[in-house]
Write the structure tokens for this entry.
Amino acid sequence: MRHKHCVSTKMKINITNYCSIHNNQIKLNGETLLVKEKQVPFNEFIKSTYDLNASPYMKFFKMDDLCKLAFLASEFLLKNKNLAEQYGSSTISLLFANTSSSLDTDINYYNTVKDFPSPSLFVYTLPNIMLGEISIRNKFKGENAFFVFEQFQADFLCNYATQLIAEKKAKAVIIGWVELLNDNQEAFLSLAEESENGTELIAENLERLYISNH
């Protein structure tokens, strides 16, 4: 049985920003920022979007597709924000999950083994590598965790994030669902922090935002 309410806390923890990338469409806080034809290949979409909207980061072109998807979503989510400066590097946590882990990259890596294994792909055969790339980019040094679920688990993610902030292990938590396998690519990132603005961080709200941006 799924629990729909987060752990109890007197603090007001809100979702202050959320971003999604799905079907070649990017939304920030429910507003559509970019739409491209679905026929455009993912690699073309992600590269052209990065070129037009992200600050230069040379390691981007060495990332696997799962990491590029998460990284680009984080660029939109955190644009004009400097959480490390605002809260301190060690107080920003990342809490991500998906269904397929790094299977897309695992398959691509396996295909290279027939000829010559690709070290650049092997590096990305762990899904938590994308957490590291986002952390390095933004100077985050807080607790990171990655989980594999059959479907988006708003209650679990909400409870975990709330507990991190309630126990003062984090001042802000980026909650992410980033799934990529074959033609299925979707990213949903939300920023939770103590704030008077935004949407209350409870499971119902997190799930509603995920579904409405899916």
